[in-house]
Amino acid sequence: MEKGKTGAVLGILLLSALLLYVIPDVHAAKVGIVVDLGSTTYTSCVAVRDGTNGYDILEKTSLSIDWSEKGPFGHALCKINGIGENVVGTACDWGSEYWNFYISTSAMNSWSYSPVGFDAGSECWNRDFTSYGGHYCAVDGDMMGLAHGSYNTQPPYYPFEQLCPQPLEITDINVEVNGKHDRGVDEDGGDFDVKPGDEVTITAEVENVLPDSINREIRDVILLVQGDNVGDEGIDEESDEVDLEAGDDDKLDVSFRVPYDAREKRYDLDVRIEGTDEDGETISIPVPVEMRVKRDKHEIKILRADTGKQSYDCESTAVLEAELVNLGEDDETLTLGVLLPDGSVIAQKETELDYDAEHPESISFMIPLSELSEGTTVVSLFADYE
């Protein structure tokens, strides 16, 4: 029964030889490729390291390319799949037609003529289309376009998402709080309400949406749920891993308990699906989910109360153990007691419960069995607080 009334350390290491290794910050980039081959159009998506030059990017495609020797302006592109001009040293046997090179960045929806070549010099181009220094370097979301002909002959334009489709898709997200479905969250995100101590399950339905003709597996697909600032311990959970062939789908779920010391506020949870494609690149799909923690002004919850034994024989006392937690907004001073069926108090004590305690409070009562009649006696635990 619950009743509420309202030194710094400096180390010096001398070595006969010092080797310094600088490890660059390497990020993955996907670049879409479009090549007008006359009767057909070649398209591809190439995964490279961020900053890879244009020559190395095109060398990763299945195109048959005739390059010139590398000269002051880098490699010159002379032929693709037999279309183009002959190689002449560090150049091509150009006439009125040649391979036009275009770039489209993630902020663009059309082609712009590249002001730089594929690998001239040692510096990356600064991505200013009025600047002619350096060479093209990969940035995730870029597209490279090539078309043979006179100046300004352009290849067809395709959206980057069509060339480099997102292979994973979240088709649905479901949130349950204490076993009850919350309709505030779906595959696009949303929000839901909880109290400290609530049991939450987040289930995501995911699908490898690549067609069977591509047949690329996405491996180690998991659902991650993190909330570093939810209570002192935070939330950091992940589902079991699954592998998804093209066209396959599956359900992933994560369960957690809202920390007892979570403050009353809105928390942005880091909810995302992650997997790895066959190139070893990480795929990550974030979902914006907000968890709103609510607390009543006064609320004490008795989580457990038991004696650990069903019967006693020839013993003078029984030990009743209880676990309580303060789910309210303030610290509370409590009077806890054990009641007999006639309403009399057989044991009681005072304690304090902090509202931001990380774990429930354990309290024990010694019950004199001499005060009980032989047979079965039902006792109740009460909590008075102001």
Topology readout:
Blueprint: E1 3-4, E2 28-36, E3 41-49, H1 54-59, E4 65-67, E5 77-80, E6 83-84, E7 87-88, E8 91-92, E9 98-104, E10 112-113, E11 143-149, H2 160-163, E12 168-177, E13 180-182, E14 185-186, E15 189-194, E16 199-208, E17 218-227, E18 235-238, E19 242-244, E20 249-257, E21 266-276, E22 282-293, E23 300-306, E24 317-326, E25 332-339, E26 345-353, E27 361-368, E28 380-385
Quick recap:
The protein is about 5% helix and about 45% strand. The protein is built from 2 helices and 28 strands.
What would your notes on this structure say?
The chain is mostly beta strands and 386 residues long. It has 3 domains: 28-163, Ferric Hydroxamate Uptake Protein, Chain A, domain 1 (Beta Complex), CATH 2.170.130; 168-293, Coagulation Factor XIII, Chain A, domain 1, CATH 2.70.50.30; 300-385, Sandwich (Immunoglobulin-like), CATH 2.60.40.10. It is built from 2 helices and 28 strands. It starts with a strand and ends with a strand. The model is unreliable at 1-26 (pLDDT under 50).
List keywords for this structure.
386 residues, mainly beta, Coagulation Factor XIII, Chain A, domain 1, Immunoglobulin-like, 3 domains, five-stranded mixed sheet, 2 helices, rod-shaped
